[in-house]
């Protein structure tokens, strides 16, 4: 048995003249939480759907749980769980009926009560899907991916649209999968989520993986000690800030200013002086440590939330 739950080599997918996935390669260790992050349209979902067998790659190699795809896709489907970014649920069924329907597709399903409990919906078994809130329906979609106790769980934007409490519930579930030595492959555009949950993160942009490592290693690679971030209503440029002696790097995007410095006090004085000389207002200033979002900005020059 390979140490890797998933191996991808030179995977490509194009839609007309657009190369959605451009020759990417990566591997996921068994029992790890792997996160593919990037902005909307970067190629996250297309990559995941090719691995799940929902889309045919133009070229490349996929080895999933020691099975080659698409040749052994039928056998692989019994061992994976899939939560899609958008899931159409049967609204006239109850949550329990829907879980049992999905359980019938597998040879050794998990008891329905256990599946619903895993996503904190055990009290909603007899409630119609149409009567569930949006967050509850999202958690039910995750539950449907767990009915076969998968060795590899695919989660595509699993916390999109969830309130903070429901989001934490999904985080708890993901962490519990690792404790059971299962493998999780998730996509997200929430960098704090990727940083908190993942053993390894791959950043994808314009269909290419531009960085791949443990979150702490990616952040450490910035070699930037402190971050000052604020917004302004005025038109300011990177060069106006990067010229300050206390600023090691600066990024201005959509009037949001991010400054990197090793001396916060000196940098703050410099920024205040600059705001007076250029007559711009400083709003919502915050001080923080570097994060994965800063890694993304460094590599792409764009904010992840764009």
Main pleated sheet: 6 strands, mixed
Indicate the percent of residues in helices. 25-40%
Give me the CATH fold name of the domain at 223-289: Alpha-Beta Plaits
Apparent shape: globular
Task: Describe what this molecule looks like in 3D.
The protein is an alpha/beta fold and 306 residues long. It has a domain at 223-289: Alpha-Beta Plaits. The chain is 32% helix and 29% strand. It contains eleven helices and 14 strands. It has helices at 44-52, 73-77, 95-103, 112-118, 134-144, 164-179, 191-197, 215-220, 238-242, 264-278, 292-300; strands at 4-15, 18-29, 33-37, 59-64, 67-69, 80-83, 152-156, 183-188, 200-205, 208-213, 226-231, 249-253, 256-261, 283-288. It is globular.
Secondary-structure map:
Elements: E1 4-15, E2 18-29, E3 33-37, H1 44-52, E4 59-64, E5 67-69, H2 73-77, E6 80-83, H3 95-103, H4 112-118, H5 134-144, E7 152-156, H6 164-179, E8 183-188, H7 191-197, E9 200-205, E10 208-213, H8 215-220, E11 226-231, H9 238-242, E12 249-253, E13 256-261, H10 264-278, E14 283-288, H11 292-300
Parallel strand pairs: 3-8, 3-9, 6-7, 7-8
Antiparallel strand pairs: 1-2, 1-4, 4-5, 9-10, 11-13, 11-14, 12-13
Helix pairs in contact: 3-4
Task: Please sum up the structure shown.
With 306 residues, the protein is an alpha/beta fold.
Keyword list:
306 residues, 29% strand, 11 helices, 32% helix, 6-stranded mixed β-sheet, Alpha-Beta Plaits, alpha/beta, 4-stranded antiparallel β-sheet, 14 strands, globular
């Amino acid at each position: 048995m390979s140490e890797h739950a998933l191996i991808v080599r030179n995977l490509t997918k194009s839609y007309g003249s657009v190369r959605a996935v451009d020759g990417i390669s990566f591997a996921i260790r068994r029992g790890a939480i792997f996160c593919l992050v990037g902005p909307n349209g970067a190629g996250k979902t297309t990559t995941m759907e090719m691995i799940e067998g929902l889309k045919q790659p133009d070229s490349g190699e996929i080895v999933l749980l020691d099975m080659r795809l698409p040749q052994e896709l039928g056998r692989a489907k019994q061992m994976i769980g899939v939560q899609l970014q958008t899931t159409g649920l049967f609204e006239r069924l109850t949550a329990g009926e829907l879980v049992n329907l999905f359980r019938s597709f597998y040879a050794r399903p998990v008891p329905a009560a256990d599946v619903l409990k895993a996503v904190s919906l055990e009290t909603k078994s007899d409630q119609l899907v149409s009567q569930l809130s949006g967050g509850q329906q999202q958690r039910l979609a995750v539950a449907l991916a767990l009915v076969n106790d998968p060795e590899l769980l695919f989660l595509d934007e699993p916390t999109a649209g969830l309130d903070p409490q429901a989001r934490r519930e999904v985080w708890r579930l993901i962490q519990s999968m690792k404790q059971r030595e299962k493998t999780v492959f998730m996509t997200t555009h929430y960098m704090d989520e990727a940083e908190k949950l993942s053993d390894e993160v791959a950043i994808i942009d314009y269909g290419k993986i531009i960085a791949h490592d443990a979150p702490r290693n990616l952040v450490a690679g910035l070699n930037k000690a402190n971050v000052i971030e604020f917004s302004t209503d005025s038109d300011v440029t990177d060069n106006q800030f990067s010229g300050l002696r206390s600023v090691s790097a600066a990024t201005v995007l959509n009037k949001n200013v991010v400054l990197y410095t090793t001396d916060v006090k000196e940098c703050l004085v410099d920024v205040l002086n600059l705001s007076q000389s250029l007559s711009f207002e400083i709003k919502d200033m915050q001080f923080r440590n570097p994060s994965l979002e800063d890694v993304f900005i460094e590599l792409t020059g764009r904010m992840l939330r764009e």
